[in-house]
Amino acid sequence: MDTAADITAMRRAITLAARGLGSTSPNPVVGCVITDASGALAGEGFHQRAGGPHAEVHALRAAGDRARGGTAYVTLEPCDHTGRTGPCAQALLAAGVSRVVYAVGDPNPQATGGGDTLRQAGVRAEQGLLAEEAEAGNAAWLTSVRQGRPYVLWKYAATLDGRIAAADATSRWITSPEARADVHRLRAEADAVVVGSGTARADDPQLGVRGIDGATQPLRVVVDTNATAVKPGARVLDDTAPTLVAVADGVPAGHLPEAAVLRLPRAAAGPGLDIEALLAALHERGVRSVLLEGGPTLAGAFVAAGAVDKVVGYLAPVLLGAGPAALGDAGISTISRALRLDVTETVPVGPDLRVTAVPAPARKGN
Question: For residues 235 and 185, what is the distance between their CA atoms, to the nearest angstrom?
Answer without folding.
Answer: 20
